[in-house]
Specification:
By secondary structure, the chain is an alpha+beta fold. The protein has one domain. Strands 3-4-5-6-7-8-9-10 form an eight-stranded antiparallel beta sheet, sandwiched between helices. The longest helix is centred in the first third of the chain and has 19 residues. The N terminus is likely disordered.
Amino acid sequence: MHKIQATLILTLIFTVSLFSAHPISSSINTGRVIYSSVASDDIEVIRAEYKKINGLKLKAHRFAYEDLPCVDEGETIYYSNGKEVRKITEKFIRDDAYTLTEYYFKQGRLIFAIEIIIGGPAIGPDTKTEYRYYVKGNKAIRQMRDKEIVPADSKSTDVIERAYKLLKIKNAKNFNLDFCKD
């Protein structure tokens, strides 16, 4: 599992460096969905806030868990600026997959999430899939799988709901119990 974690860390560093490397044109046509300059302007605002959050000195509050009904092991870390949660990282192992998700907030509202899933069968190579969700008004305005822009689907809805669930249970008396509730 250390190999997977090391790979994930390197992948995340590489991903973050690429985050701002993709110029946005006024209109992107993926063959399936056309994204207008309005969405591109929103994406630029989200990217700027993402950079700002990652440049802040935030206080971390960590919850570790293992052998829960919903995950084998993992941790959730809340990063706060004063009383405001600006970022949540969630790392966990479930079955043969390792998942790292980072959620970014502005004024209590989710604006961006990145999810990296590494896993595969016990015998064979691991696969890595990266998802990015740009969020405005609690709806995904852009969803990406690896480097491809794809139509927002129920996966983005699940990630948005998960982000708010994690935000809600931060101060729960029994974090581990609330963590596994649907």
